[in-house]
Write a sequence for this structure.
């Protein structure tokens, strides 16, 4: 890339994470010749955009930089001639996430923004929007890179690459960053002296670790992190610290990610989530309050740096990863990163054209994943199931096909039973109807023939 006056656009610029992004760019000011930063949001996010946008301007000024920071509700104006576009938007704002969590939990089923029923609905709401953004990009900035960290990051990235045809897409997540730091700390070795190989899909990957003498340290880390004498920590603010079963992890011989708790010890995670639900403290409800406090801080005209309180959010390090990825593409730095990217045979157990989350250097041409090969049988079956579920969810998100949506719900390991799958699907379609035009036919049918479904959702939402 030879441009030396970069235009970087962030869609969902009114997010409370934006100061982390700006901090990440400032940290890399010598590597990135930024001219313009465009923060884009929608009418409903206008107030937040103005508050956090003004703070972004103060941060840039305090760093002595002459970057232009533009705030706009006009996505097309922002995208014109962009070099990098990052996405961090949430369709339906946090209120939609509250529904993703509360509807399933009201039936004693896990509700989570990227896993289970909630995650599938977030995909239904988000995928049509990312495809719309790509349509604009094809016209307005055909050479730009798309850096996605909108959740569910794996499915959204797969939709962008496979269905939007935008090959220059990289999906990011902060979970691997936390695991790298944890490994370095447990082994007492600098992170940059360790070599990591992650493989799987977003929020469902495993990893192996080697030291700089080429010795594999995975088994030792399993003992140190999950051994009988260890108090286990999830190291993610949004994930309850329930303990994995050591013997099972040892048998697999791979380090799990924090989100495997929802699958390997689902009963414990569910019990904890139900408790939160009963107290009116699901994660989304807590985050809504944290966010309100953050925006009060951001309003302070003297605040010109990222406040510590942002660390209360689970996505810390996300934006920093985005900035590093951009710097690595721009400078061909070959920074080792874990990225959601097209499989192309990296994981032989999964389809060639699907998106996987894997390790590798980021070059001027994008991410170049290291070969992983195949998984042991105990991981192979479940990851193939999860990928099939993701592909079916994406298909339903694009077509609005009720049968495909029901199929995705039925095969998702966190949704117990076909009857429950249908109940949750119907209720969530009603709860989110304003954001799901592709499902309008199914929604009308439910409204006309299942008044009890509509009444249940209304009552639940009123008790929020
Ligand atoms: C983790 C995940 C992110 C997710 C975040 C939620 O870090 O990797 O995908 O967005 O947690 O954090 P929150 O503070 O919104 O619950």
């Amino acid at each position: 890339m030879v441009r030396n006056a970069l235009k970087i656009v962030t869609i969902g610029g009114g997010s409370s994470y934006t100061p982390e992004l700006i901090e990440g760019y400032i940290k890399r000011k010598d590597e990135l010749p930024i001219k313009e930063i465009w923060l884009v949001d929608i009418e409903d996010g206008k107030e937040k955009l103005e508050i956090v946008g003004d703070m972004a301007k103060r941060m840039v000024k305090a760093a002595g930089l002459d970057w232009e920071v533009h705030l706009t509700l006009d996505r097309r104006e922002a995208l014109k001639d962009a070099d990098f576009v990052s996405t961090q938007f949430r369709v339906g704002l946090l209120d939609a996430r509250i529904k993703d969590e509360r509807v399933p939990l009201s039936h004693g089923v896990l509700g989570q923004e990227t896993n289970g029923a909630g995650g599938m609905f977030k995909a239904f709401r988000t995928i049509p929007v990312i495809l719309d953004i790509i349509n604009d990009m094809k016209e307005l900035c055909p050479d730009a890179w798309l850096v996605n960290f909108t959740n569910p990051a794996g499915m959204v990235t797969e939709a962008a690459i496979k269905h939007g045809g935008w090959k220059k897409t990289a999906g990011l997540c902060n979970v691997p960053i936390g695991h790298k730091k944890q490994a370095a700390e447990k082994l007492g070795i600098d992170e940059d002296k360790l070599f990591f190989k992650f493989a799987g899909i977003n929020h469902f990957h495993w990893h192996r670790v080697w030291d700089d003498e080429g010795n594999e340290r995975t088994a030792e880390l399993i003992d140190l992190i999950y051994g009988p004498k260890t108090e286990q920590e999830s190291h993610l603010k949004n994930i309850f610290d329930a303990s994995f079963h050591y013997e099972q992890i040892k048998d697999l011989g791979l380090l799990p990610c924090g989100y495997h708790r929802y699958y390997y010890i689902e009963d414990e995670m569910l019990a904890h989530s139900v408790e939160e639900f009963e107290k009116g403290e699901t994660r989304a409800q807590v985050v809504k309050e944290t966010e309100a406090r953050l925006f009060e801080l951001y309003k302070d005209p003297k605040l010109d740096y990222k406040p510590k309180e942002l660390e209360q959010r689970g996505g810390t390090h996300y934006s920093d990863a985005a900035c590093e990825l951009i710097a690595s593409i721009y400078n061909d730095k070959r920074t080792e990163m874990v990225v959601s990217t097209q499989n192309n045979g990296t994981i032989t157990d999964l389809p060639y054209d699907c998106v996987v989350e894997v390790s590798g250097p980021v070059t001027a041409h994008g991410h170049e994943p290291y070969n992983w090969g195949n998984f042991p049988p105990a991981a192979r079956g479940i990851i193939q199931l999860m990928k099939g579920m993701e592909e079916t969810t994406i298909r339903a998100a694009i077509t609005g096909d009720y049968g495909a949506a029901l199929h995705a719900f039925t095969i998702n390991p966190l949704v117990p039973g076909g009857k429950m799958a249908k109940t949750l699907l119907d209720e969530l379609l009603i709860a989110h109807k304003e954001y799901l035009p592709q499902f309008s036919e199914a929604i009308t049918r439910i409204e006309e023939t299942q008044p009890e479904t509509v009444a249940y959702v209304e009552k639940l939402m009123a008790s929020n």
In short: Residues 400-462 form one domain. The pocket of 6-O-phosphono-alpha-D-glucopyranose is lined by residues 114, 151, 173-175, 236-238, 283, 287, 313-315 (CB under 6 Å). The two ends are 50 Å apart (CA to CA).
